[in-house]
Model the fold of this input.
Amino acid sequence: MTPAPSETTSHDSTALWASAQVTALSVEDFPEYGSPAWSALRATDPRRAVAIITAAEQWRRHAAREAWLDLLLDEDPERWFAYVTADANDYTRTIAGDLARRPTVAELDARRRASPARTRSVAATPGWPPVAIPGCPGWLRTLTPDGRQLDRPQLPQESPRDLAPPQHRAAGWVDAA
Done:
């Protein structure tokens, strides 16, 4: 049988010693070990010692847990896998109902095939530059003065900035590139 990690035992003399030292120093708030605030403390400040003891104890427990997990992996891989995936399994149980109500990719594809998307025709708008026509490179749709949509080839010297009405160029609505 694999032993439990050291942080779960009630007779851990090292943890009791660390707790007694922190209690004896009577410090409630202390900066994280290695932080700029910790580095700014004087060497005799008890908060500095408490941060060191706390960091050392956290590292000792972390290393003990990792060693226990390595041993468990070697001795009982199935139990190791159950242990390391327990949190993910618990979370999965909490979201399983919501996931079950969501449509699958196949269901979403079937919906898309059943109701094809409505297409919208490209239309030029009064006061705006001409619109590029999808699928027709180099062609623009413009609005004539009498309100008709007109398709025409883009001239080589034209740029989108040149095609914008003056009030839109001044407002910066058109890309200046």
DSSP finds eight helices and three strands in the chain. The helical segments are 13-25, 36-39, 46-75, 77-84, 86-101, 105-114, 160-163, 166-171. The longest strand covers residues 139-143. The first helix runs from residue 13 to 25.
